[in-house]
Amino acid sequence: xxxxxCGATVFxxxxxxxxxxxxxxxxxxxxxxxxxxxxxxxAGDSDEIVAFAFSPSGTYLAVSAxxxxxxxxxxxxxxxxxxxxxxxxxxxLAITAGEDQILLADKSGDVYSFSIQDPQRPGQLQLGHxxxxxxxxxxxxxxxxITADRDEKIRVSLLExxxxxxxxxxxxxxxxxxxxxxxxxxxxxxxxxxxxxxxLWEYQSGMELDCFKMSExxxxxxxxxxxxxxxxxxxxxxxxxxxxxxxxxxVHIFKLDVVAQKLxxxxxxxxxxxxxxxxxxxxxxxxxxxxxxxxxxxxxxxHWQARPLQTATAVCTR
Length: 318
Prior knowledge:
mainly beta
């Protein structure tokens, strides 16, 4: 299951089903079944949604499925604009700040660009790594595309000239699974890895500013010696960000101290079932997909108070 929100727009996926909601608006949710579009499938392909990305304004949502589909939606009102196919299975998506391109990173190490303005145009190869790509982000001014791979590397390239490499951010000891540029500090980059660390970078120079070992806050009794980071999300209001690791039992809240160039752990939220995914809304609420229930946590006097919402499974199966 995947979950995300951008402004008043909320997205869920369960298997091959996509659900779109516009908070504060009446009416039935938008539901799209990715199995509705078919072509000759490769052996082992499934229809499950594996990655998604909102455009910065929330006007567009791109999702990719394990069967190589790339589906573009408009969210105001909800409408499927196109269904295209990638060359190989995708691992991560990003939409440019100009909302004119979808960048798709795939398992072979390539990044393809798909037009939003011409939603039927096939993808164009932009750049490649020598190993599987796991994450891709674009800098807020659309100057840089930043990619991370299974071989510990983070590469910073020019978006318009992706063959030009600006810098490498080197320091992780295992695969780099997550990248996040804080919207309030576009010169900085957060990364998460299978080595159990989150790191802070000044990415244009490749300089590492701080490294936080998640083992320092690992819950007692945890069976895993080291937890890989699977999601990093940043709050648009202030400098908080949340980290989800592959034990899926808790969500960790951090504060980015820009002056001291430090990552400070504030709080750990222990979930009841399993934290499938996390997202911040525009008013500092942290949404956690906990089992089949969506729970929103709001900061109040240094504590995070929970407020459950509608059951996700009930919504996704309407």
